[in-house]
Design goal:
Structural class: mainly alpha
Radius of gyration: 16 Å
Helix content: 55-70%
Order of helices and strands: HHHHHH
Oligomer: single chain
């Protein structure tokens, strides 16, 4: 099973999200996304979209949902996949990752 939606991936991805090797590995996909949106306005979400995919965007927003709602939804999804996890532990991980994202330098 090669599930990317795991707590382990969520915990470690902030350490790799800005690494050049990771960005190079997804370069073809990013070029396709950028080319497809060149002539049409788009709304795109993601943790590194504003810095690496569309660094020259006219508008960039940081939007998040209520932490308890996010934690409940994520924990439920993980439990549905057979993970033994508490909503509190998911909430803790989300808060930590949010803080990393909010303090990461953007161009």
């Amino acid at each position: 099973d090669r599930d990317l939606n795991t707590i382990e991936i969520s915990r470690t991805s902030p350490y790799f999200s800005g690494e050049r090797a990771i960005l190079d590995a997804t370069d073809a996909t990013l070029r396709t996304l950028i080319d497809a949106s060149r002539d049409h306005p788009v709304i795109v979400e993601g943790r590194t979209i504003g810095k690496y995919v569309y660094p020259g965007s006219d508008v960039k927003l940081y939007i998040d949902a209520d932490i308890d709602t996010r934690a409940t939804r994520r924990a439920g999804g993980l439990r549905a996949k057979g993970k033994d996890i508490t909503t509190d532990s998911v909430k803790h991980d989300l808060l930590k990752r949010d803080e990393q994202d909010q303090t990461r330098p953007y161009q």
